[in-house]
Q: What sequence folds into this?
């Protein structure tokens, strides 16, 4: 499958590459998607609405849930809600990692019940402020952490990676810098492993400062 805005292109492996099988229409443009059995899970928001959207394999809508950030400014809400999604079919868990300055990962059940919310302290980020015409971004003078990837490792957990870019790397528009990785338990969200991964040099380096993480469990299974 290939996500293209409000269409999800369906391809099937063939003798020479892939064959086009058709397209599914989505309610909201997809930023990312994963498969949970026969259910398609996409990320995307419109006008401060839900971030996670579930569709049947034939394209029929199943439901939507997940409100990441709430403010009177819809543009800020949408910017803060951008992220990636991964699915764990063995435990029926959907993980959502935010791409913005929140530096957190959430675990949901397919019915929208929030299982856990893991936040990472010490993240450096640009500051977003409301303005009469929308919002403005004030750049961090000390570099920026940003989401690099989120994926499911069968039998292990959710692998989430943030990258830290120095000011000069941001100026050079580098795609990524030093990478810090965590493996999260799918049922609790607890980060049981941390693996610094570096580029450009094989010499021992000091990982970017990221002192701690905290996993919050909802008080009610109805939490969203």
A:
């Amino acid at each position: 499958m290939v996500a293209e805005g409000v269409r999800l292109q369906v391809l099937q492996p063939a003798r020479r590459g892939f064959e086009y099988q058709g397209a599914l229409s989505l309610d909201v443009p997809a930023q990312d998607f994963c498969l949970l059995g026969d259910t398609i899970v996409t990320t995307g928001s419109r006008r401060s609405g839900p971030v996670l959207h579930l569709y049947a394999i034939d394209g029929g809508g199943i439901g939507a849930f997940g409100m990441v950030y709430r403010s009177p400014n819809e543009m800020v809400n949408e910017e803060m809600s951008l992220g990636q999604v991964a699915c764990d079919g063995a435990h029926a868990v959907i993980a959502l990692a935010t791409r913005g300055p929140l530096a957190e990962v959430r675990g949901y059940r397919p019915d929208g019940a929030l299982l856990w919310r893991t936040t990472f302290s010490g993240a450096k980020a640009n500051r977003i402020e409301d303005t009469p015409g929308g919002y403005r971004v004030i750049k961090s003078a000390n570099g920026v952490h940003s989401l690099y990837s989120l994926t499911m490792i069968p039998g292990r957990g959710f692998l989430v990676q943030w990258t830290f870019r120095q000011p000069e790397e941001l100026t050079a528009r580098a795609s990524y810098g030093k990478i810090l990785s965590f493996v999260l338990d799918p049922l609790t969200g607890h980060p049981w492993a941390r693996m610094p991964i570096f580029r450009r040099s094989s010499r021992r380096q000091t990982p970017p400062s990221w002192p701690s993480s905290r996993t919050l469990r909802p008080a009610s299974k109805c939490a969203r």
